[in-house]
Amino acid sequence: MVVAYLRVSTEKQFLANQREEILRFAEKNELMIDKWYTETVSGSVSSKERKLSGLLNRMQKGDTLIVTEISRLSRTMLEIMTILNSCIKKNVILYSTKEGYVFQNDINSKVLGFAFGLMAEIERNLISMRTKEALARRKKEGVKLGRKKGTCPAMRVLRENKRRLKRDSQRGVSCSELARQMGVSRTTMSRFLNTN
Length: 196
What we know:
Elements: E1 2-8, H1 16-28, E2 35-40, H2 51-58, E3 64-67, H3 77-90, E4 93-96, E5 101-103, H4 107-140, H5 153-160, H6 162-170, H7 175-182, H8 186-195
Parallel strand pairs: 1-2, 1-3, 3-4
Antiparallel strand pairs: 4-5
Helix pairs in contact: 3-4, 7-8
Pfam families: Resolvase
Domain Resolvase/invertase-type recombinase catalytic: 1-142
Protein name: Resolvase/invertase-type recombinase catalytic domain-containing protein
């Protein structure tokens, strides 16, 4: 079984880019995706509290898991190492499309897994630190913080496709399916359809 796992941290991010990248990778490597797992949750949330946990538990020897980046699995080094170790023990092959690596039951995969886990954690800490510093500096300068109404990228994309979404909704296409097609959460799609 070949499984693709897609994750974004917020509803403001899009799953579509990850989906397209995985489809290109699968086609290039002659793989057929059997199942897609998508979720909108921070990578710092434990995998035990996400769909990822159930997915990893069901995977068996010879299965393949595809992600766009190792950081899609988690943002903490310890958890990435745990997930990679679990895949290696089960003989599940893990592809990371952006980095171009294959993680399987060999020493190179174990070393790379450690390195990627460490990099993901350092990157998350640096981003968090830079964001806090920038917000503090802007606040000190007297800049009002917050998003202007109507600038949410997800809502902007939905507004641009408003006619099509309304037509498909009236034809009976489910809210979940429309959300999947647009790469937004079901909650965002539902809110949009109810207010437009």
